[in-house]
TrEMBL record:
<keyword id="KW-0560">Oxidoreductase</keyword>
<keyword id="KW-0223">Dioxygenase</keyword>
<dbReference type="GO" id="GO:0005506">
    <property type="term" value="F:iron ion binding"/>
</dbReference>
<dbReference type="GO" id="GO:0016706">
    <property type="term" value="F:2-oxoglutarate-dependent dioxygenase activity"/>
</dbReference>
<dbReference type="InterPro" id="IPR008775">
    <property type="entry name" value="Phytyl_CoA_dOase-like"/>
</dbReference>
<protein>
    <submittedName>
        <fullName>Ectoine hydroxylase-related dioxygenase (Phytanoyl-CoA dioxygenase family)</fullName>
    </submittedName>
</protein>
<dbReference type="Pfam" id="PF05721">
    <property type="entry name" value="PhyH"/>
</dbReference>
Length: 269
């Protein structure tokens, strides 16, 4: 076993202060989750798969706001043994379980999010708008594959917004950016926009509102994400077309009322 693969299996020392921060603010940034060597071992495969599997070929100027925000490629683990190794990391999954306060977590799906040079704003939104889940026991790990300065458009969070109901019915769009920018400011949720060091990883709840600034640098902002759910998560009746599509795509064979149990949702911790 390589040292980098071993690191993916070794427990991360998550302290009580980080768990409390996640509970209070709906997100937490954790330093030194992955070493530079581990990131370097997997980044070329992630980037190669994004190039191979990306279906967005319009020039930036011809795309809508969502299309300008990032290139998005999902479930890389199905296309590569190396990506299966990375996405299945017990180290990353255990952090998710500890933060959620659950005994066990499943994979929902992974996705690479590459914000190209000149890529636009990622509008304010909450991920769980897209997911037909019965509870809020779900979390996204946001894993930058390079140091990410503010000019590159790192993820930014509305601290404490995980309990804010307004705007939960909005997909990523110009409308969500406009409506939520005003509503979150009115409610005085602090916006936390900070650079990410190499090896720093954030975890945010499904209902925590977040966005990202444009990438003003001359290189892509390369990010891998992994979405975890409580292993006991039940599926609810979809309330929008996106949730219907997610149920069919990421939980094949499951139906509303089922516990998530499809072959695409293995227990990772």
């Amino acid at each position: 076993m390589t040292l980098t693969r071993a690191e993916l299996e070794i427990d991360y020392a998550l302290d009580r202060a980080s768990i409390a921060h996640f509970a209070d603010h709906g997100f937490v940034k954790l330093r030194n989750v992955l070493s530079p060597a581990t990131i370097a071992a997997y980044e070329p495969e992630i980037t190669g798969k994004v190039i191979e599997l990306n279906t967005q070929h319009l020039p930036l100027a011809e795309r809508d706001t969502y299309g300008k925000a990032f290139l998005q490629v999902m479930n890389l683990w199905q296309d590569s043994e190396l990506m299966l190794e990375f996405v299945s990391s017990p180290r990353l999954a255990r952090i998710a379980a500890q933060l959620l306060g659950v005994r066990s977590v499943r994979l929902y799906h992974d996705q690479a999010l590459y914000k190209e040079s000149g890529g636009g704003v990622t509008p304010w939104h909450a991920d769980q708008y897209y997911w037909p889940f019965a509870t809020d026991r779900c979390v996204t790990a946001w894993i930058p594959l390079q140091a990410t300065p503010l000019a590159m458009g790192p993820l930014a969070f509305a601290a404490g917004s995980q309990s804010f109901d307004h705007g939960r019915d909005l997909p990523i769009s110009d409308e969500s950016e406009r409506v939520l920018q005003a509503a979150l400011a009115e409610q005085e949720f602090p916006e936390v926009a900070e650079p990410f060091e190499l090896g720093e990883v954030s975890y945010h709840r499904g209902w925590t509102f977040h966005h990202a600034a444009p990438n003003e640098t001359d290189v892509p902002r390369r990010v891998m994400t992994i979405i975890y759910v409580d292993a006991e998560m039940e599926i609810v009746e979809p309330v929008n077309t996106f949730q219907q599509a997610d149920l069919a795509t990421w939980m094949p064979g499951n139906r509303p009322g089922d516990r998530i149990s499809s072959p695409l949702n293995p227990v990772l911790y």
